[in-house]
Amino acid sequence: MTRFIKVGGIGVITLVLGIAVFILWQILPLFRGARVEAGAERALEVADYRILGVDEYADLPLLVDAKGRLSVVDLAGDRGQIEIDPEFEDDANFTAFAYHPARQDLVCATDDGRFSIVKIEYESEFVDDVRVLNAAAEAGDFHEIGQKGSPIRRIAYGDADDVKLVAALQEVDGKMELHAAMLEQASSLFGGGEISVADSFNLTGKTAGNLTALLVDGGAASVLAASDAGEVFYFYYDEDEEDFELRQTFRPFEGAEGVKIASMDFLLGDVTIVFTGSGGENRLFSLFIPEGGDLRLWGRTKDFPDLPAGAACYSRSLRNKSFLIAAGKTVSLRHATTEKVRWQENLDFEPVLARLNSKYNRMVLLDGQGRLRVFSLDDPHPESSFKALFGKLWYEGSDRPTYAWQSTGGSDEFEPKLSMVPLIAGTLKGTFYAMLFAFPIALLAAIYTSQFAAPRFRTTIKPTMEIMASLPSVVLGFLAALWLAPLIEDRVPSILLMAVGLPLLSMAVGFGWARMPIRWRALIPAGSEFLCFIPILFVGMWACWEAGPALERALFTVDGTADFRLWWPDATGADFQQRNSLVVGFMMGFAVIPIIFTIAEDSLSSVPGALRGASLALGASRWQTAIRVIVPTASAGIFSAVMIGLGRAVGETMIVVMATGNTPIMEWNVFSGMRTLSANIAVELPEAPVHGTLYRTLFLGAMVLFLLTFAVNTVAEILRHRLREKYKTV
Predict the structure, then answer these.
(1) Are 700 and 420 in contact (CB under 8 A)?
(2) Lower Cβ count inside 10 Å, N or C end of the chain?
(3) Tell me: the pLDDT tens digits for 563-577?
């Protein structure tokens, strides 16, 4: 039997370690950087290429040269470089281009103040069971913008389907002018029709200096122009005034003397701009509402390590917040959310154009010698880093760095927030309120049952408490959500009165009972006194419950309305939610009480009777004996009971899922909810793609929970051993 127990113990330890190793194996890829490997190369026709685009798989890259000629390069086959004709309506001398990789739109501007929108389309066909990708381009009509006959040097385009916006920097008499045009598209049952200019705007008078860079957001609502003096002008379209207002002017490299803006590009979502300076500085600015303001403005949120010089080429990912940037021979892949360089290397050539494909697994670079180079990219978890998981990050839309958990959003432009800190805080919060409710009740009940209750009652009370422990947590969660939470919501003052009044009532009854004549107390058999107190307790509960509304009218009034739910946010600034920590504390405490009670009662009952008899023989009362002799002697067992109850509270899932709002917030407000590590795993795991970032992050949550309980149990065992040694009896 001894050998069998040893083998079983070793087996349990091995299984626990095996589980830990498996979880660790799942989370290690979260902390791995990107891997990039060189692939195919193609020599191109000699030309001054201005635009590089790619299809979804980067099998047929698109090239546009300075003369407006379009061609594609067959990287998956042997067709070489294929020219495609967009069939412009007439000959034109092109001076500027803009490419939108998500919509596959190309805007071509001319030297006489016109522009045309070219739609790029990819189609697949199978030849002898081999997939062949083809590309086609269709040019729209030419439209005028700004001063007729003046060349366009920069152009930008935003398309939100029902709203379209074009902005251009046009050279007029040797100076740059900023013009914008709102476009409208006729619609029919067969789709979109002809595009025409609906309204034009000259924004030059609202700017200063020589403008050099231009952006239009994808929502076709704003225009940003940068000057050679390092100043950015932010225009926003006011639908009421039907005009662009200059909402903000800012300097991205303010404080850096002599630094000019080398590049200015949007990140996925168009609410963050990636700036590089002439000295290689790399800063990110995002839109958010500053404290005390009411408009979204651009503010500096991130700083990346410097590049050797200003960026020569840039490409944003269409799948996440990563971006590819190059200066000289240095090529760097960076992730905006985590503020982390995923990969960086000095190559043996200088890229002049770069593009990431939409699947985020290929990088296509064009060097100055006309060679197209393809690199494979393996970066499955760019959103993950130690700082992203455990530190504060400045997320888009926020006015400061925060801890946040929000794994999914409404669009692909969403920025995942995967901080473990709110979940750890929620776990500790739920455990604290559950133990605050359960510990005193369970311990005092165990002391009374083992030391004061008559044996005939003890044989009934303890099995009843043990049966309570068998109640499924899903049933308790169901009761908490549908019965207890609505009940408590309207009667918080009554609950507060009970929390204060019932202990005071109990002490008052005990004080009075101790001072009653002995002949009266002798009428009640020892150990049955609680039978007299039960009716008083119920009367006290009823009185507190009925007196709650009166207390609410007296103390918790807002603007003449007696309502604690309104008073609490007004007085404290904290939220009041129906499903909150108070509900969780009550119901999860109800689940923990039987565990603590049973183990603590066993420990108290196991104290040798000789100690109890000796204490009573020396003149101590039963209460003095219980508190000063029995409890210290059984302290090791009581501590074990509390730790086991704590472990149950830490790992509780269904009660927390059903009885709280499951909001991952970081506040100790008793009237707000929380999200715990275990509840988060239960809620998120069904929607997590296998081996995806969320999937592995949930395993990280499991590891944190494992380490948390392991640390608590280890400390508890050490303290329990010391308490046992201190109070052991011979």
Answers:
(1) yes
(2) C
(3) 999 999 988 888 899
